[in-house]
Amino acid sequence: MTHDQIAKLSTYLSHQVTSTIPLEIRPSSIAHAKHGLFTTAAIREGEEIFRSDPLITCVDDGIQNVVCDYCLSYSRSNVLPSGQFRQTEEEMQPLKTCSRCNVCYYCSKECQLNAWRGYHKYECPILSKKKNLFVRTRALYRLITMQKAGLIDAEQWDAVNHLEAHHTKYLRGPLSTSIVEIAISAKMETNMRIPEAQRIYCAILTNSMSIKSAEGSAPVLGTTLDVVGSFMNHSCNPTALVFFEGRQMRVRSLLPLRAGEEITQTYVDPSGSVFLRQAITEKDYFFKCVSPDEAGWIQKLDNSQQRLLKLINHAVAQHNQTELANLEADAEKIIREPFPNGVWPDDMQPLPSLYGTFARICKDNNDVAGATRCSLKASLTLRERTGDIWVHALFDTVQIVTLLCLPEQHAIFKGNSLFSKDDCWNVLYGYLGELKRATTRTFGSNSTYTKSIAWYSEAVLSAGQPCPGARRFRAVFNISQNKLLEWAGIEKSKGIAILAE
């Protein structure tokens, strides 16, 4: 892009996002990137960078009947719009489909009317004929029909056309035939020229982002195209987290950023193996990502990481505690192999994910003690205690420690000289406090998920024992946490250091 084009895009950016921080598009120093999104002011960790209303959103394949096409509410969500967690007896309301195309579903008449006026009436005749389109193909038709209807202005369309599309690479790759066929179909349905339809579709393939809510148990809800978000390049150690609150995309800092620093996100699941992450970025984005701290021994890790991932999948498939001891023994053998001293770094994935899987199996088999040990290892051995991965792992641990405090678990404490039920309550209080702080830092105080965590915390604390005085609680908590970690076989240095109240 020329200097004038970059300046034009930066001006467009300032009109399209809500942000108190001045942002700019500049040439990127990242090897595989051309341009990136930069902050012109210092940003603290846990600060909101910007909010954006994407050009388009499309619900993912196979879940259209449980995700509202307009507001993106997930009918099976455990988090209610009121900021509380769903109770088991609360009924999930079914969504209603568009009677014309039977492709898009809505949670209310209001959402259906907003969608109809905003985009759906232009795409509905096409979807009525093509009911099984891939989500990104649906995104293409939505984008084109909105542009043809004048719902996307010239400035927005110009910005879309300046997005990196890897057009030539795609047409030389394995998707070339399907891209050409989709472009020909788009020409027939919308009268857009085939070369333009090809390029726009390639831009969607390259720049579309997954729609993820703050809730850890929710699936990927769909795909979105946001021009500003598209300029956030990939890093395996990202500086920002992207999530959705309803239809709105929110971007918050995971790390402190200096003025002039590039804002990055991750394009892949960071819990995957190094080679898996590389394979995805190479296949979908045409670059090979190497995390600097893993580059020196990447070959050594690949085989073991892949075997651990297979072990996780096997554990999920079996979901049998009888098999768990064998799986743990297999894991012990695998993690000894790659390193000369036989010690796999606790904080390196997929080991925390493996512990998390074992914890869920123990919990589902009513082995609260086993679930507690594994869950503590899953959360406390994470490399980074920031972002959504830390929040969701800690919440899993909090829920299991809550079970440990229930009266029916008294058998665990019989003959146990290491820790008492009072110790469990102390740890629970401390972890709840850290969970609330981490959730607010990650998702912001006005996120529905943050409010639900606060509601959960109040519900637990109201049922528990009186909390020690705030002045001496930190000392009491540290003693209790050390006892629990010794019982679980975890180094005391891995414990959570809570802030003074």
From TrEMBL:
InterPro entries: H3K4_H4K5_MeTrfase, SET_dom, SET_dom_sf, Znf_MYND. SMART domains: SET. PROSITE patterns: SET, ZF_MYND_2. Residues 21-268 form the SET domain. GO terms for molecular function: zinc ion binding. It comes from the Eukaryota. Keywords: Metal-binding, Zinc, Zinc-finger. Residues 68-124 form the MYND-type domain. The keyword Zinc-finger applies. Transmembrane segments: none annotated. The keyword Zinc applies. Gene3D superfamilies: 1.10.220.160, 6.10.140.2220, SET domain. GO terms for cellular component: nucleus. This is Suppressor of anucleate metulae protein B. It comes from Penicillium hordei.
